[in-house]
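lol ok so funny story. i was supposed to be doing the assay writeup but got distracted and ended up predicting the structure for this chain instead. priorities right. anyway since i did it might as well share w the group, maybe its usefull for someone
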Amino acid sequence: MKTGIKLIFSILLIFNFNFKALSAEKIKIGLLIPVTGEYGKIGQSVINSVRLALNSINDNRIEILPRDTRADPSTTLKIAKELYEVNGVKIIIGPLFSSSTEYLSEIPEVTFLSLTNKLTDTPTNVISAGVNSISQLNAIKKFQKSKNLERTIFLIPNSNFKIEIEKAISKTKIKLKDKFLYDTDPTLLTAQIEKITRYPQRKQNLLDEMERVENSMDTNKEKKIENLKKRDTIGGINFDSVVIADFDENFKSVATSLLYTDVSSKRVFYINLNNWFDESLLEESSLHPIYFPSVDKKNYDTFNSDYKKSYGEAANQISFLSYDIMGLVYYLIYKNDFVISNKMFSENNIFKGKTGLFQINDRNMTHELSFYSIENKKFIKIF
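and the output, tada:
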């Protein structure tokens, strides 16, 4: 990232601004999230985080107008139009999902900072503010260089997410040996991983070697056979690292299949995407070490602590991002003398928030992420 960082954290997000308003006129910011239904809890966490940010900003000129989208694209458009036409809102935080942005090009006067991390197919007035694949692959590139990794393969779920990953691979020009699609159906997954890792051939190599030693005149063959029985395969693999473009239980399934085919994390680097310090992985010691890019953990833990003190429950990654986005919006409004303009978001500045360094390029927010390993039941920061 370029120099000239705008420290919204120092100026705003570490906030404590507490200066007197120069004008009594309210600046209205829309907030489009699901408040009811399946995703209502996530939506409420966004509202909570924005309120935390506003408490830190302490500027009564800012008014937030939350609205329930019900995670529905048509409802999202209807409410967004009302916010613009009735309330004069020109900046909206949200919606939560990329699918809800479908019709928002009908209101070009409004800029939306969606919490999605999707890189593709969003309207030109929507900025994708989530931690996207490009940000994660840029961090992996840095890790590759530090470890001299030359033969990285990608394992990508055969889902809509593959489009995002393939775009990020192309955009970042990350070094890779090959990429493979896999089916998330457990009944199909293992056979696919066996093929990718050449497991049947390597298993046969072992059986052939055992037979060769058994039929040999080697006086030490009994000991050699015993040693061979301790192995699962014979033969190398043609990659030194594997990026598993999945998370949660799907990641565990893929990693376990790799382990089954005698490709352990002791032989190759397991690299995970979309990992926000998944504590369940701390207990998966057979898969350690696991490597992954993510936001600054120290800031994330501090935010979680503050959030829990205020609301009595844990925060999540969406609420963490929401805090930064509210800070960014306020910073740009303040910098622009409280005049709202779509051009505020077009400058190629670098900002520093709780998530770390980030900037807006081509309607996507790109984050400069940290890199971590999971080993000995701990999260360890690498850079």
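The first strand starts at residue 5 and ends at 6. The two ends are 16 Å apart (CA to CA).
back to the writeup now i swear
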